[in-house]
Amino acid sequence: MKIDKSHIVSSSLGAILGACSIWGISALSGNNAASPFSKKAELTMYEKVADDPDGDVYITPKGKKYHTAWCYILRKSDEMKRASRSSVIEVGYTPCRKCKP
Ligand SMILES: [Zn+2]
To answer: Domain containing 22: what range?
Structure first.
């Protein structure tokens, strides 16, 4: 009887441990699969554009337009970066209607 009981206990423990490890693995692999996507989603259009000192247009973190150096919209923004026209168009920026870059 003693042997039977311990056998039952160990087998049920094994089942619980087995279930835990399955969940553990699936949770881990889920995290690994999700992290590259979440990082991509966190990257804004602004962050995708490399700062280029030789570029000919300017972008701001909040705006979705690109501007010439003299545009007043740039003066309203605390942050901006200079970039090449082709690189800002690539990530979805469109020309500003005010300064027509
Ligand atoms: Zn502008």
So the answer is: 5-38
Where do the H-state alpha helices sit in 43-82?
45-48, 72-76
Cβ atoms of 65 and 27 within 8 Å: the answer is no
Considering the entire predicted model, what is its pTM? 0.59
Residues 69, 53: one domain? yes
pLDDT tens readout for residues 16-47: 556 555 555 455 555 555 555 555 567 899 99
Tell whether 101 is covered by a domain. Answer: no
Q: Which of 92, 48, 31, 34 is nearest to 66 (CA)?
A: 92
100 within domain boundaries: no
63 Cα to the center of ligand 1, angstroms? 10
Strand partners, 57: 83
Which residues are placed with Cβ below 5 angstroms of ligand 1, an ion?
A: 67, 71, 73, 96, 98-99
